[in-house]
Structures are given as structure tokens and as C-alpha cells.
Amino acid sequence: MWRGLIRRLSTNSEQIAKVDVSYLRPRHRILAAGGVPPVEFDYERERAARRERFGKFGLASGVSVEELYPTVEEIEEEYAIGLFKELNEVKQEYLELKKKQDEAHKNRLAELEKNLKKYPAALEKYEASLVKQEKLKDEKEIALEKRIREIQEYFGYWMDPKDPRFEVMLEQKEAEEKKAVKLAKREEVQKKRYAEVVQ
Amino acid sequence: MSQALRSAKERALQIVEQASKIRIQDARDNLGARTSGRQVRKANNQMGHTQGALERAAKPPLGWIWGDFFRPWQRMFPGEKHFNADINVRREYIPLSLIELTRLIDLGWIDPSKPIDISTLCRTQKFQINPNIRQYGFDLTEEGADSFPYAIDIEVQYATQSAIAAVEKAGGRIRTSYYDVNALEAAIDPKKWFEKGNVVPQRKAPPKTLIGYYMDAKNRGYLADESDIENNRINLANIRGYKLPDHEMVTEPLKTVDQVFHGIPAGSVISLADKKLYSPTNEIHREYYSKQVADKQYS
């Protein structure tokens, strides 16, 4: 036991320098020393990882520059999808659209100018029609309102004129009014007769 | 049938039979059925922890409410048409005022003798652009336009007329240009882009709805004719009443329409480790990277 301990303590300085006490894994030791670590894991064989490897270590990574570009299939697929139009085509489309919009705007301005000339006459006509309508409306409305009020006063409570019961009431009231008129006539006749008899 | 003979049930049935149908005008809310708000209990009150918080503390920005700093209105009411109608398509531009730009130059964050673009501005670490949430670059605003001293060569994505005038008055050159998402990502952090081993993308032209802005020489759009821009430059000086300096600040030739970085053509591969630039030799790749295309409408 003692011999072993003495042997361990008596190692020379060169041997000490070789001992790595950083506890880094070989991969990280290479990275720390500025080297390129070998491909070790599965993910490193994937495309994105290979690209990143090139990005980090350049040509020393063992990744060729061609690998970084999209494949012909990918390019063809992008063309086939047709998501991106050509610049000149889009420019042309925009210019056509603008031309159309400008024309529409111009036409609209011309139309407005034309209408503005007709405006005083049209306004006068409109105002005249407004007055006429108001008058007609007033007469009708007043008659209707009067009728509604009469009915409501007659029955003694408020009722919506749109209610179907209102019409029934209206008929009822009209019948009663007719009856009243009839009675009044009869009375008049009777009075006349009475007067004749009395004379 | 006389009144006395009928039972209460029969009478009730008769009333119901005679009654008219329930109509829409008969339908009314019960009392208290509708309220304009609800009473919040003290424990649930989100309007500020104390009266002082309401009166003196910093208020959240517009659109954000007290107690809910992490839920702005557009997220709380995603269906609201007033502010959310086009939330999935509208583009956001990070405002950059002239006074901010002056300060960045004053403090040495930006070198005015070199071209200023997205990469330069993002390198200062003072701005964050996230293309994934439809942030599309910088909007140069006119704050500080009255005293902008530097002749600069700047490229932004949007600029007001006052900002353009201020830059040109000082002898600078300004262009507005469009970056699609890919190009923007590369421009924001070139180092990260190159270290990922990505090919320098081709900058796509704006879509149909935006191309008008960048084709307009009034906006100093990068798709406009240079002669038109020169005329507009003189015109703007006449309108605003300032004298243009004898020569414009030109640090480097303008980027081409599909170029993301000064001096690096689209389709190149950059190796930072080797300090080398590789160009495609394949005809298909050359054609792919030289074809000028416009970006898709919604991205």
C-alpha cells in the first residue's frame, strides 16, 4: 500500500501536464481547442445540421457548398406552386389597376360636375314635392289620429291600432254609430209625426 | 251560457282563446335584465390596487388596461372588427424618429459615413424586429426633423414626407425599400444567418398592394426611376422652401432590387470561418436567384 502511494506521489511534471482534469468530453475538448468535432450523432447527418456545420466551420467541416442550395426538385416544386409572380407581371397588373382607378375617379368627377349643374333645379323640385307630401300626409294622419282617439276614448283604455282586436272594436263602434244615427232619424220622424198630430 | 254557470277554468280558457298572438312589440325585457356594466367587488377590482395607483402611477399604453398588462384588447377581443379586422395581414413598422437616429449617431452606435439599413439599425441592439409577427422593418418618423444635422445614406421601409425632407435638407440620401420575411430575417441578424449555413436570399419585390408605394418617386421608392427621384427631390425642396446641398451623400452604390446586403449578390454562400464568398455555378441555381419575383400577397 505504501509503495503504491509513493509511486503515485512521485510522478514527474511531464506526466502531470498530460492529465486533463477539465472533465470535458472529447467532443467538447475539440471544440474548446478550436477544432472540428467528428460527426457523432444521428441529428448531425440531417440537412439543417450539416448546413449549420458548414456555417460554423466552413470548408473544414467536410460539408460541400452545393449541399447548402435548394435541390432542383425543390426549385421545380416552388415554380409549380406558383406562389410568387414575376416582378414585371405584378408591375403591369398594378399599372393597369391604377389606370382603371384613375379613369373611374375621373369619370366620377365629371359626373359630379354634371350633377352639380342640375342641382339647383333638382333641389327646387324636391323641396316642392316635400311640401306637397307633407300636406297630404297631415290630413290623412289627422283623420286617422282623430279616429284612434275617438275609439280609445269610447272604450276607455289605450289600444294599439295595429292590434287585430282594434279592428273588431272599430267595427263594433261603427255599428253602434250607425244604430245611433238610425235611432236619431227615427226620433226625428216621430217628432215630426207628433207635431203633425198635435197641430 | 250565462256568466254564473261558467267555471273559472272555462273563463280563463276563453280569455286565452280570444287573446291575440304575442307579437314582437309585446316582448319586453324584465326589469334589470339589461345593464350597462357590472358591479365589481373590491377584491376583484382591476382598476388599480390603491387610489394612488390610479391617480399617480404610470398608466399602461393605449389599448391595455390596468391589471391586465399581458392581455391587450386585440387579444382579449379577437373578433372585434374595429381593431382586429385585418390583424392577421396588416404589417407593422417599428417607428424610428430622426431624433433617435441623431442620438444613435451622436453616441457612436451608428457610423454616418456608411450606409444605414436594417442590418445597421439592428446591430445597435436598440430595436427588435420580429418578422414572425408581421413586423416588416422601420418607419422613419419626423420627430426631430427641425434639427437633423447629419448627411446620411439611409434605407428604411416607410418614411413620411417630412422625414424625407429633413434627410435631404441635410444632404442625405433616403430610399424606402421592401424586405420580404426571409430577407428581413437575414438582414436583422446576418451573423446568425451565415452561421446557420443559409444561402443569402433573394429579396422579393413588394406584393401588388404595396408596389405602388415603392414605385412612387415621391416616397423615394427603390423601384422608382432615379431620374424621377431626382426631380422629386428638387420639387420637395421647392415646396418646403429649403436649399438642397450641392451633392448628395453617397456612401455606396444602391442595392439592386433583389439584394439584401451591400456588396453580396443574392444566391451567395458566406463562410465566416474561411472568410470566403461562394457563388452558385449551376445554371438552374443562377436562374433561380436572378429571377426577380414579387412577394405573395399575404405573408
From TrEMBL, chain A:
Coiled coil, from the record: 80-143
Alphabetized InterPro entries for the sequence: Ribosomal_mL64, Ribosomal_mL64_sf
Keyword set, alphabetical order: Cell cycle, Coiled coil, Mitochondrion, Nucleus, Ribonucleoprotein, Ribosomal protein
A Gene Ontology term for the protein's cellular component: ribosome
PANTHER family: GROWTH ARREST AND DNA DAMAGE-INDUCIBLE PROTEINS-INTERACTING PROTEIN 1 GADD45GIP1 (PTHR31761), LARGE RIBOSOMAL SUBUNIT PROTEIN ML64 (PTHR31761:SF1)
UniProt function note: Acts as a negative regulator of G1 to S cell cycle phase progression by inhibiting cyclin-dependent kinases. Inhibitory effects are additive with GADD45 proteins but also occur in the absence of GADD45 proteins. Acts as a repressor of the orphan nuclear receptor NR4A1 by inhibiting AB domain-mediated transcriptional activity. May be involved in the hormone-mediated regulation of NR4A1 transcriptional activity. May play a role in mitochondrial protein synthesis.
Protein name, entry field: Large ribosomal subunit protein mL64
Species per Swiss-Prot/TrEMBL record: Caenorhabditis angaria
TrEMBL record, chain B:
Entry-linked Pfam families: Ribosomal_L27A
Highest taxon of the lineage: Eukaryota
A cellular-component GO term for this protein: mitochondrial large ribosomal subunit
Annotated coiled-coil segments of the chain: none
BP GO terms, sorted: translation
Domain annotation Large ribosomal subunit protein uL15/eL18: ranges: 96-174
Gene Ontology molecular functions: structural constituent of ribosome
Keywords, in A-Z order: Ribonucleoprotein, Ribosomal protein
Keyword Ribosomal protein in annotation: yes
The keyword tRNA-binding appears for this protein: no
Family statement drawn from the similarity comment of this UniProt entry: Belongs to the universal ribosomal protein uL15 family.
Protein name: Large ribosomal subunit protein uL15m
Native source species: Caenorhabditis angaria
